[in-house]
Design brief:
single chain, about 450 residues, two-stranded antiparallel sheet, about 45% helix, globular
């Protein structure tokens, strides 16, 4: 089991309500805030804790150990260039959601990122007005329309091929999927998509910052970004202020979430799916790595949901995930990221994600769960997709076979990232991901 945080903690008696971590990390307030409905309240569980180690565990880290891996060991390739005028992931937030995000991070902007913060603040006007219109025009009709079918969830760790798999599954016209536009404007896309999407399409870069996968308003997108735009608790809120202490780590496996906060999250998730249901009148295919640790909650919400789980060798996805977060932080962050604890964050997230999966794995059966290994999908996507259709009873595969074949061309198949994994990092990966490697057949 992975247990990673920052380096060892020095205990100090301080008159102010904060405690200091060793090293260059800034102080962390003992009363971090958590989203609760339409308000921000102190996280009282943290306030009552006495030991620094307990405070660390409550905020998402298990015990004061370190991975001993330096970020320089990863030798990241340059990120794809993204112009300053391109939309950021905050640009679909309402005034309340954006204001909450700034307040909970105490407005700790880097001076050079203040203009980005001002732009993000200005862009909240349209989503706020759109949210009001959508609620007043469509809320009753959305609530009255029953779900056409329970969702299909594409799950797996970041950088294991979830995006490509999502696109392959979405080739079936009988299913719908959230696009980038839906996820940026989750509470207003019904009133803005017809005119705002074509008006701003030229602002979207052709490729994602971290890889060669296509970007655009109309490509399938990860629904966790919709939850982020809605102001719901998600670990992705860390991207805004990447140098601050990561919060909402419990939402990677939904352990220990108070009932009221959990209900708020479920209402938001269900609301987004119902918006999509109203727009498409089809079963929805969703993809989000954090859902890997949320299977029990998702099955409670959608008992007939199905899950497609993709796995990959940790030597490939661990360094790739670190590079992904580095690119997203640099592109979207309101701070110039230092990434001193980035590797620890990657391993801690992995631990939480797959502890949740291990807890819920017993709920999965052959009729609602399909597992695919990334190398097998790359080698023969048609065979893997046909097996998935048969096992999950998704209908006639022959109608989408040709589309799958067309997607598997040299120009459309994602290139497998190659990373020079140091001996030190390789050893840590085997220590922290050994159970995963054994479970999914990636042993050396």
């Amino acid at each position: 089991m992975v247990s990673l945080t920052s380096p060892a903690v020095k205990r100090k008696t301080r008159p102010s309500a904060c405690f200091q971590l060793s090293g260059p990390r800034s102080s962390i307030h003992l009363r971090p805030t958590i989203f609760c409905g339409t308000s921000i309240r102190p996280l009282s569980e943290v306030t009552l804790l006495k030991s620094t180690a307990s405070k660390l565990r409550a905020l998402g880290m298990n015990n004061p150990t370190t991975s001993s891996v330096d970020i320089a060991e990863l030798q990241f390739a340059p990120f794809n260039w993204v112009p300053f005028w391109c939309p950021r992931i905050w640009n679909g937030m309402t005034m309340h959601a954006w204001g909450t995000l700034m307040r909970e991070n105490h407005y700790r902007f880097s001076p050079s990122r203040v203009p980005s913060g001002l732009i993000a603040t200005c862009t909240t006007v349209l989503p706020t007005f759109g949210d009001w219109l959508q609620r007043n025009w469509y809320a009753e009709a959305i609530d009255d329309l029953p779900l056409v079918g329970d969702p299909i969830f594409v799950i797996g760790h970041w950088r294991t091929g979830t995006t490509w798999l999502h696109e392959l599954v979405a080739e079936n016209p009988d299913f719908a999927f959230p696009t980038t536009f839906h996820c940026f404007f989750p509470n207003s896309f019904l009133v803005t998509r017809s005119w705002l999407r074509p008006m701003t399409a030229f602002l979207i870069p052709p490729k994602r910052p971290m890889d060669d996968m296509s970007m655009g308003w109309d490509v399938p997108q990860e629904d966790e970004f919709a939850l982020l735009s809605m102001g719901l608790p998600t670990p992705y809120r860390r991207i805004a202020f990447p140098n601050n202490f990561p919060r909402f780590m419990d939402y990677l496996n939904m352990n220990g979430i108070p009932a009221r906060e959990l209900q708020t999250w479920k209402d938001g998730m269900r609301g987004f799916i119902k918006n999509l249901n109203y727009a498409f009148r089809k079963p929805v295919i969703l993809k989000s790595p954090p859902h890997t640790g949320r299977i029990s909650i998702l099955l409670e919400m959608f008992p007939q949901a199905k899950f497609v789980h993709i796995t990959r060798h940790p030597d490939e996805f661990i360094p790739s995930t670190a590079r992904m977060w580095a690119s997203l932080d640099s592109y979207n962050g309101m701070q110039v990221p230092h990434h001193r604890e980035l590797i620890d964050y990657v391993f801690s997230s992995f631990d939480r994600l797959y502890r949740g999966f291990k807890r819920d794995e017993q709920l999965l059966e052959k009729h609602n769960y399909f597992e695919v290994r990334y190398p097998d999908l790359v080698a023969n996507p048609v065979a893997q997709m046909e097996a998935m259709y048969a096992q999950l009873q998704l209908g006639d595969f022959s109608s989408v076979r040709q589309k799958i074949i067309e997607r598997h061309t040299p120009t459309r198949t994602p290139r497998a990232g190659k990373y020079a994994v140091s001996a030190n990092l390789k050893q840590v990966i085997r220590e922290k991901c050994g159970d995963y490697m054994a479970r999914f057949g990636y042993e050396d």
